[in-house]
Structures are given as structure tokens and as C-alpha cells.
Request: fold
Amino acid sequence: MKTRPLMFFGTTNLDLCFNVERLPTPGETLMGILARNPGGKGANQAVAAARLGLRPHFYTRLGDDEAGRRLLQSLAEAGVRTDAVEICQGEPSGTAMVMVGDDGANMIVIDPGANLNATALTVEKATGFIEPDAIVVAEMGIPVPALERLFELKADKGFEVIFNPAPVRPGLSAAAWRSIDYLTPNQSETFELTGVEVRDFGSAARAASKLLELGTKAVLITLGACGAYYCDESRSFGLPAFPVKVVDTTGAGDAFNGAFAAFLSQGVAVRDAIRKAMAVAALCVSRRGAQDSMPTARTVDEFLNQQTVLELE
Ligand code: RIB
Reply:
């Protein structure tokens, strides 16, 4: 089967990562070790797909600064096609301050910089890179009017949409929700969108039916260590996560989204694409960093083979 083209629309940041023993409480000062890593949700997702052997296009906005040059280079080195990337004179590249505790949990604050100035017009221009029968992945770091224009062009261009509503922002139109093929929130995003606290597959099912009422064709809720829950008009199922030692959860959701898109584009059936994307997320959390921790297709296959052996024992 022919691999379908992939294009990601999203943010790119320079992540200033402080590795600390535990996350600080308000008013507290802690010592940590600083690492500067390429990040940003859209960039992480595109890199996750590229590591699996795809050659996705990526639309993002970078400043014309040192961080921007470094971020562009690391995207290209990972195998992401950067022709659609905008280099923006006089705007700073996005920066994220990421704190990661020894238990792998994180806290993130973002200064979006150039990411924030994507418009309906700039995004429309970038859609020129969407190839026929493509899968398009977008996240919510892109301003709402720009996202709405992207989704509006779906009918014209005939692509499928995976939308990761991270971080959740208000104001997306009813028509935009209806144009989503796969909506992929995590637990906290699901809570923000539905008011339902997702702790298990039962509560995920309740939240998913509320999300389906928005008109999206399928909902795929990620539940961290509890796995993932899928629901569309005709079927629903939950899949357990792979048990791994968690080192750093930064980029886990991005690993999942990028990989899910990559496997779908390779013609893998939805259920199996979710299972394989969970393997990618599991490998991502077992290493430090976001883009730096995205595994190759070979590592994912070895991991899955190992899981099958463990299941048979
Ligand atoms: O999802 C992880 C990402 O969120 C980090 O790389 C950081 O840049 C923030 O956008």
C-alpha cells in the first residue's frame, strides 16, 4: 500500500529544561541542571513521524535568531521537510521553560514568540504544501483563526484531520469541530473540554460521547499510564499502556500524536496504529528530552517484539 503524505501544523520552541529532584512549590527555590533542547508540540510531533521513516512537511513560525536557526536545523536533520517553515524577521522564536522531576513529571511555561503570529493567511499559504490524500495534524498552539482557516480548506483539498487540542483554547467554531476526523486530547484537555474527570476507560467513555457531540468523527483520549481510549460512531475500545520506567514525560503526547499519524499514513489499521503509537510514547518517556527521545521504527519494532515475548511467558 502507498504511504499517504503527512503534514503537521504547529509550534516550535527552544526548551530550557531544568532537571530537578522534584517540582518546586510556590515561593521555593531549587537547584537543577539545565539542558537546551529542541521542542514545541508541532515540531515534536513532526519529528516523531520523521524518526519512524516518514518525510512529513511542517508549517511553523520561527524567529530570525540563533534559536530559530538551531531549531530549523534539528528539524531538517530529523528528516522533516522544512520548505513551509516561516522565518520571521524581528520576532523571537518560541521558548519553553520545562521543569522535570526525578519521577518524570513536568511543569511547562511557554513564551510563544513567533508561534503566536500565525494567521489565516499564513496558514492558507502553507496549505500549498499539502499533497493529495494527505493526513494533516494540527495542535492548538496555533491561533484559533489560523486553525479555522486550515480546517475550512479541508473540503477543497480533501485531506483528513487529526487535531490535538493542546493547549486547550476557547473559541473554535462549531464548523471547525465538525471537520475533525480524529480528536486526540489527554486527560486534562478532556476535562477542560467536557468537565469529565477521566481516570479509567469508563469515565473516558462518558467524556468521549460528549466530545463526539461536537461533531468530530472519532475521539482518541490518551490516559498516560492507563493507556488510550478510542470511540467513533460504530465502535469503542480501550487499550492498556506499556509498562516502562518513566524518566521524562515531556513530549509523550506529541510522540503519540506524531506516531499515530505516521502509522495511519502507512495504512496501519486504527487499533494497531494506536497500540504502536503507545509504544512510541512509552519509549519517549523512558528517555530525557522531547525530540531527542523520539524512537526509530526499528527501536519500536524491537520493543513490540519484546512485549509479545513477555506476554507469552
Ligand atoms: O509537549 C511538550 C512541549 O510542550 C515541549 O517541547 C514544550 O516546548 C511545550 O510546547
Remarks:
- The chain has a mean pLDDT of 96.
- Residues 11, 13, 15, 39-41, 44, 96, 108, 110, 250-251, 253-254, 290 surround alpha-D-ribofuranose (CB under 6 Å).
- The chain has one domain: 6-12+41-94+113-312.
